[in-house]
Specification:
- The two termini are 21 Å apart.
- The protein has a single domain, classed as Aldolase class I (TIM Barrel).
- The protein contains 10 helices and 8 strands.
- It is globular and about 40 Å long.
- The chain has an 8-stranded parallel β-barrel, surrounded by 8 helices.
- The protein is α/β, with parallel strands linked by helices.
Length: 221
Amino acid sequence: MFAHSPIRKRLLNSRLYLVTDQELSGNRETVKTVEQALRGGVDMVQLREYSLNDSQLFEMALKVRKLTSKYKALFIVNNRPDIALASGADGVHLGQDDLPVPAARKILGKSKLIGVSTHDISQAKRAIKDWADYIGVGPVYPTQTKKNVVPPVTLDYVRQVNKARLPIPFFAIGGIKLHNVEEVLKAGARRIAVVTGIVGAHKVAKVAGEYKKILRKYPWV
C-alpha cells in the first residue's frame, strides 16, 4: 500500500461518508444538502449526480470542493477521474463496470484516493491488489439508488470483510438508515456511507449528527 500520506491519514479517520443524489433530496439543491451535511459532521462527500452533463458536473464539483475544504472534509467524485482532477478533488470512486483502478491511477497519480464498490470478497481482494485506497461494501440492504442492479449483499458480506481484516478501510453502504445502522455496526463495520438516509432527510444537519453520534458508540477495535 501507499505510505500514509496526510490525505490517507484523513481517510483512516473518516467514518461518515455522504453520497449525493439530487433526485432523492426532495428538490433541494445538492450544494445546499452538502453544506448542511458537513455542518452535521460528515467526514467525506462523494459527488454522484448521474443527471448532470459534464459542464454542470464540473461546476458543481468546484462548489463542493470549496465547501469540503472549508469544513476540512474529503471530496470524492464518482466515476470521473478527469473531473476529479480538474476540480481539485481528493479522489474518485469507481464501480465494478467503471474505469479500472490502474487506469484511473494513471490519470490521478499516487497522491489521490481511489475507492471501489465491491459486492463480494473476490472483488474486495482485487481492489486491494490494484492498490485501491478503500472499498465500499454493499448494498447491505435494498436501496433506491441501485434498483435491480445489484442484489443486497446483506450483513453477511459485512461480517466477511470485517473478519478478513483487510489492509484498507471499508465503508458499508446501501439502504443504511438510522433505524438499522446499529445492525451494520454490530456486524463489524466502523465506517458507513449514506445516500437517502441523509440527502432525503428534512433536517439534513440534524440527521447527519445523529449518525455521527451513533458511530461514536462503536469505537475502533
